Structure formats: structure tokens, C-alpha cells
Amino acid sequence: MKIGLLAIAGVKIQTRKFIELGVTLPQFVNRSQVIAQLPSLALLTLAAVTPDDVDVEYVEVDDVEAFCRAPRLDFDLVALSTYSARAFDAYRVADACRARGSAVVIGGLHATVLPFEAARHADAVVVGEGERTWPEVVNDFRRGGKAGLKPFYREAHPGQLDIADVPLPRFDLLRRAAAPASRTDLAQTGEVHRLGPYNRITVQTSRGCPWDCDFCAASKLYGPRYRLKPVERVLQEVDAVRALWRRPFLEFADDNTFVHKTWSKELLRRLADREVRWFTETDVSVADDDELLDLLYPAGCRQVLIGFESPRRQSLDGLDTVNWKHGRHDRVLDAVAKIQARGVSVCGCFIVGLDADTPDIFDELRAFIDRSRLLEVQITVLTPFPGTRLYDRLLAEGRLLYPGAWDRCTLFDVNFRPRGMSVEQLEDGLMALWRDAWNADALAERKHYYRELQRARRGQSAEVDEAEERFALMRTT
Fold it and tell me: Is 465 a residue whose pLDDT tops 70?
């Protein structure tokens, strides 16, 4: 029995004028390449809970058109996991595989919030976290083929999985996916290679986020409870990556890494001797703890991504269930300064099109970016992802432009009528802001400031490692 784990990543923007502008902006191009090169941690984890006597292969589907014209025929069972922006592409791949005899299982965030839609393109749908249900899927198929599969596999207790029990992801499958067919097997050579086509390898330390923003879909998959892996368990995964790649760059694939400060400090201290560099996402409260900040750089952290969302306090009102971000608005500039002074750059994330945004929000954001001296900036449009409170509210208010147009869930395409401006004003203001923030000169100026900041911190004139400057590379839902 052979199982194919098919990953469909990347971003495909739909708005033509955005595409034409984006290819001229270095930071936009760089970000798109990074997103496309992130491996699917979900599929690698499924591989780890697959019975040992089953042959498993991880496949990156880079060209959906080409794959559908000539899909792989050697898989008995195919598993697909993707996010909303690529859901239609995943369905095309699924349909092509089924037409040629393979059974298809679809899971992931999009399938969890829209299981009946996904079921039109699959023999089975996994709803929620798949670590417990996937072995049941495989066993049902082995016993009865397609006919033995249930239409839906659901967790008995959603959001309650102890992630300490999740086995190590099959990182070795990435090496197989990237290696030429003639390469001698790692087990025979003991060689350790660079990352190949992957600019970073993902490791998960936690699941969930306590703030539950109305535009965030992650809680629909992971549930409302914030869950941590034991530090020792995280280190095992880090060491598994280090055994396969020389000087790996990691992304901690968390929604909010440093919520629990005591756990965070223990992890940082233990990472200090691992000689890995990494990126993660967190919230502004990371700057509240000077001891934690001092541990970041020695532990290998080179950039944190923080969702500031808006420079306008009124626009933050009501974004999360306890108005946490609204209450932290005045601390943002100080937080950026404290983090970057430690040698860790900040990628500040901002959303335009929030209900309190008016056309002058773009000038406010320009001024805020200049004052903050952020090394990296991510500017996206408010995006109504399926399953979120935001989507339900905009649908009820009749403000969705294209209901069900999941391929517009890119964080860049506009798919709703803003409250404080027209669609055209939102798109034109966004494009102008991208031009100003993402052009080569603006990026060079921010890098120059960051270099000077690090020279002052180190008390030397050496250039900041170019590899560390490439961490400006963001992840989208």
C-alpha cells in the first residue's frame, strides 16, 4: 500500500493590478517565494502516525495544471491538506486523482470549517486535528478500500489533544522529496545537507492563541484552549531537523509563541546551545519581560512577527473578544524599540479595511511605520476567511463581494465592502502604501537603520549577517 501526501502551498493573487505591481516590489516577490517554499507540517505529522508498514511519499504540487494533466498513478490513497486560498486548486488535484483510481482524503483548516464542500471532492474528510483520526482512516482503507472509508472522521473531543503525545514529524520525507532519484539514501551515507528547496523548516511548539481575533481562523481547527508542548519535546524536534540539515533555519509554526513566559524562558535557555536560527510569531507582550528579551538572540531568534493590526486605536476596538490589542495600543512603539535593540528584528503586521478605517488611514500607517523603525512590514487587507466571526458578520450585513470565493482569501485581494471608504479607495490606497513601504529604496533605508542599530549593540563595525536580514519573510493563513 502506498500513500501520497500532496502539499499545495503558495499564494495566487487574483487582482490583476496587484499582480502587476507586486512583481516590481522586491519585498513582495521575496515574501511570495518564501510562502511557496514552506513545507506542510500537517502532512509530515500525518506521516508520523501512519503505520510503519505503509509506504508514504511527500509531494509538493508546484504546478497544479501540469499535475492534473498527468497525476501520479502509483498512489492507492492520497491525502491533501491546504488552506482556503488554495482550496479550489486542491479540489482540482483531488478530482484528477480520483478520476484515475486513487482514493482521496482531504483535511486541514478549510475542510474543518467546510467539510460538506470538501466532501464533494473526496472519499473521506478529516475534520479537526488529524493525529488521532488518521490511523483510523488508513486502517479502514486497508480493510475495505474506498468502500471501507467513512465520509467523515471527527475528533471525539475537539481541541483536547495533548500535543506532547504527537510523534516527531517525518522531516526525512522532505529530504526525499527534494533529492534526485539517483541520490544515495541518507541512511547509507550519513550525509547532512543544506535545506535544498526549503528556505526554512517548520517546528510547532504550541497550538492556539488566547486572543481569538474575529478575523482569525486558527481557533476553528485548534479550539479555544492554548496548548504547549513540553520543552524537552520541542528540543527533540529541533534536534531531528539538525540531524538532517546543516545550519537549518527554523520557523516555529505557532500563532503566538511567548504567551506563557516561564515556559518560554526555559525553552530559550535550552535552545542556546543548539546553534539554530529561527523566526516566530508572537504578540506585543513579549516586550513586557526584559529577561525573556535578553534570552531571544542567544537562543537563535532573529525575527519575531507581531500583529499590530492598526496604528489607529479606534480600528482595534472589538477585534478580539477581550479587546486586548485595543488596550495595548500605546505600548507598540516602545515594544519594537526594546525588541530590535536586542538584535531581533520585528516584522510588524498591519491590516487595512477595518471598520473604523477611513481614507486617511494610509497616511497614518506611513507615519507609524516611519516612527517605529520596523525592519520589516507586512501590509494586508482585512480578509473574511470562512468559519470566522468576521465572515459571518460581513455575510449577514450583505458586505461580501464574492461569497464563497475562497481563492480571494489571499490577504491581498479585497472581497468585501469597507465601512469607511469605497472598494476602489481601499485598493488604490493599499497599492500606494505597498509602493512606499516595499520598494527597494525603502527596504534599503530600513536595513541601513537596522545595521547601525546592531553595530551600536555589538560595539563593532562588522556587517550584519546577510542571512539574518532575509528573515523578513512572512507566513499567511
Answer: no
Rounded Cα distance, 294 and 53, in Å: 47
Number of H helices, E strands in the chain: 22, 14
Q: Which residues pair with 350 in a beta bridge?
A: 309, 379
Contact criterion met (CB below 8 Å) for 1 and 50: no
Taking only the tens place, the pLDDT of each residue in 254-276 is 999 999 999 999 999 999 999 89
DSSP 188: H
In 3D space, the residue among 304, 352, 308, 360 whose CA is nearest the CA of residue 333 turns out to be 308
Cα distance between residue 435 and residue 21, in whole Å? 8
How many alpha carbons fall within 13 Å on the CB side of residue 417? 8
DSSP assignment string, 84-143:
GGGHHHHHHHHHHHHHTT-EEEEESHHHHH-HHHHHTT-SEEEES--TTTHHHHHHHHHH
13 φψ region: left (φ > 0), alpha (ψ -120 to 50), beta (else):
beta
Separation CA 302–CA 27 (nearest Å): 18
* pTM of structure: 0.90
The grid coordinates of residue 48 equal 508520523
Residues 418-460 have pLDDT tens digits of 999 999 999 999 999 999 988 888 888 888 888 888 888 877 5
Under a CB-based contact definition with an 8 Å cutoff, are residues 251 and 475 in contact? yes
